[in-house]
Amino acid sequence: MGVAANSVRIDVHAEAERLLRAIDQRYSDGRRRLVETLLAATHPLVATDIADDDLPQSSVYRNLTVLEQAGVVSKVLTNGERAAFELAERLKGHHHHLVCVGCGQVLDIDLPADIERRLTDDMTSTARSAGFVLVGHRLDLLGRCSTCVTSDRDD
Amino acid sequence: MGVAANSVRIDVHAEAERLLRAIDQRYSDGRRRLVETLLAATHPLVATDIADDDLPQSSVYRNLTVLEQAGVVSKVLTNGERAAFELAERLKGHHHHLVCVGCGQVLDIDLPADIERRLTDDMTSTARSAGFVLVGHRLDLLGRCSTCVTSDRDD
DNA sequence: ATCAGTGCAAACTTTTTGCACCGCA
DNA sequence: TGCGGTGCAAAAAGTTTGCACTGAT
Predict the structure, then answer these.
(1) Interface of A with B in 75-134 (CB under 8 A)
(2) pTM of the predicted structure, to 2 decimals
(3) CATH number assigned to the domain comprising residue B80
(4) Can you give the residue range of the structural domain that contains A49?
(5) Model confidence over A108-152: pLDDT tens digits?
(6) Cα–Cα distance for residue pair B151/B155, rounded to 1 Å
(7) CB proximity list for A38: less than 8 A, separation 6 or greater
(8) Most buried of the four, A56, A141, B3, B29, by CB within 10 Å?
């Protein structure tokens, strides 16, 4: 619980290659660079963030599509303006965000395992009752960090 | 539980007008129609959904921007392909989203009251342990709708 | 040698903007 | 009657696609 440990235990590249092989795709150099870039990022990236680095736009988009199909990256639900991508949960670990509505800072957090499990159970049945197969969830906690709470008092 | 009851107790139009006035904007007929459309919808709408109805694209986009600034509507987190909009929480009540990661469709859902309350309790303490004062939360369920699950099988 | 993957450029989709006009405070 | 809001059309921004080429198996 608390701040996410963000422990990367598995070999991301080996796993990426395995996932791609499973759908008859190669782990080409461009795709490896793309994964490398996402791995180094501390937040989800939009396509052009990656393109600036090293690959042409069309390759970025095409490879992101393939990597998403393979389950290596996932499209992150953003505010709808751009599509953003991050490494898939299986490669990155499940976590939540604690967002300060005052200053906008975002912290990665984990929930206690029992709460997380109960949450997942509850949501699985809720989703099923609407005809959906649950694949995950996103929970953002909105709050005020101690700094912003303190400055509230000064107003 | 299940699909949101959409209980609207306050006068949405009066509140919208008040919020717009607060930032020196008028509650024009076009904006009223736009709010009306969102009010009737059971799920967030993308700009073209609204445009089809009655307003030109440019007016829809411009008015959505103004209404968002006023706090009347909010941009919903989608799968990043299109921006979707709904009435702000203060006008619409608290609810969650069931998002299809395949096609991007979003459904409004309520959680059973006891689960919602437990969730809030759990998160309040989690936030506090990171030095935050919780002010709210966003919970999105990610899944595949029946249509997308079916088309998976055809691949 | 074959075919998956690449890079360029052009097409396409979604969103924003310039400008002339309309109508309410 | 001045200025906020509108509608059209054109531009900009973001994403996808066609095609010829390259390189790994």
Answers:
(1) 75-84, 98, 100-101, 107, 109, 111-112, 115, 118-119, 122-123, 126-127, 129-134
(2) 0.78
(3) 1.10.10.10
(4) 2-154
(5) 788 888 888 988 998 998 999 999 999 888 888 888 888 888 866
(6) 7
(7) A45, A50, A73, A85, A86, A87
(8) A141
